[in-house]
Amino acid sequence: MMDEKLKNLVLKSGNNLHMEVVLLLKSLGWNVELSTYYHDDISDKPREIDIVASRDCPVGVPGRGQTNFKIFLFIECKYFKEGVAFRMYDNQEKESRSAIITNGFSANILRDSGFAEKHHYVCASTVGKLYDSKENDEVFKSLTGAVKSLAFFKESRNEKGIFYPIVVYDGVPGLYEITNNDFSKLDSAPLTENIVFHLNYSYRSAVTSRLSNQSFCVDFVRKSELGKFLTMVKGQEINEIEKFAQFLLMKGRQL
To answer: 198: closest CA among 101, 82, 55?
Structure first.
């Protein structure tokens, strides 16, 4: 029989949220890698990302061949015990477009397809820039963990695809929004389940050791909304790349 202390530890473990997200992703047809390690350039030590999920997107035109790319999700799972308030500011299209991370395409999908215009980073009216919580360190670790693992993976594996850093959270009913630093309505601050957070992040390349600066957007998505979120990404954004890929194939070109 399992020891009571160990049983309580298992029942309260943060790994429970982790595995719930894994099972959900697998049920939706995603390939899931658990406990994948990346190199943390600040500590110079290996770190673990909770989940790397991927999905193949084959596109074919009869008589014209086929092309393929992947969608990658870099997910940190976080069970918040305290509320989190995000300071929301007007979205800047130039910043948001530069935060769309792609790799390995021969065609310029950001310029020539409708992908960027339909991307939820660009379509969001406001984005988070700062946050307040008793769990500030946990918020920081989760969003930087997703970003660092993406940057390391993109360089080390060099696969053709679209990359999304995501924090899937639970434990609280939503995230508070404070818009343009307006404190007059804190008592009625709206709760939202999903937020796009923007940051500029400097990191040292694990491949070249050069210092790079990149604009990133990180999605904070409530666990119960993850399925809807991924459906939105596929229908609103990825479909634009698939249509563009078909157009290129008709012209005898590849993505």
So the answer is: 101
Query: How many degrees, rounded to 5, is the angle at CA 167 between CA 109 and CA 216?
Result: 40
**Rounded-to-integer distance, Cα 184 and Cα 182, Å:** 6
C-alpha–C-alpha distance, residues 177 and 79, integer Å? 19
Q: Do residues 53 and 32 lie in contact, with contact meaning Cβ atoms separated by under 8 Å?
A: yes
pLDDT tens track for 179-217: 888 787 888 888 999 999 999 988 877 777 788 889 999
The answer to whether the beta carbons of residues 161 and 104 sit under 8 Å apart is yes
Tell me the CA distances in angstroms from 9 to 5, 50, 181, 223, one per residue in order.
6, 19, 40, 22
pTM over 0.90: yes
Domains in the chain: boundaries: 15-250
Structure tokens at 134: 């008793």
